[in-house]
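Action item from last week, closing it out:
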Amino acid sequence: MSICTINLTKNHAKSVIEKLQSKKELPFQDVLSSEAIQKYLPNTPRRDRIFSPETTLFSFLSQVISSDQSCQAAVVQVIAQLADESKEVSANTAAYCKARARLPEDMLSGLAREAAEQQEKCVPPEWLWRGRHVKLIDGTCISMPDTPENQAVYPQPDTQKKGLASPLLGLLQ
């Protein structure tokens, strides 16, 4: 189910999640291709397992959007999907949890970035603000030790009295 095929509603995010939850198969399989997933996996031989990296990833995504975010619910969904293929899967969550821990962190962030770029390309024009894509920026500040070196690089704001504040470093994401 692509975001591009969903009707715009007042509660769009909620409607997307409801549609994903109502499907029998694991979510996002039409958004994340096997080739994209393989790009982030090391080229090491792997055993043939029920919880392959792909199955584990889609199970994890299912777990995240589920109202029951337990590992047990994720495993039950895999069991239901594989029942059609006559594969026997244990209801024990250990294999799933170990497989989930093996997922590379850079794979998750890379796939999220790729999927977002892919979905942004097909956003209907009526969703745009004045015909433009809106970018959100998040920022914060951290205080640093009040040393002469830090004061030289990150001076105090002009709005504060000298010597009353530590140097601040602004961060944007």
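Closing note: The chain has a mean pLDDT of 81.
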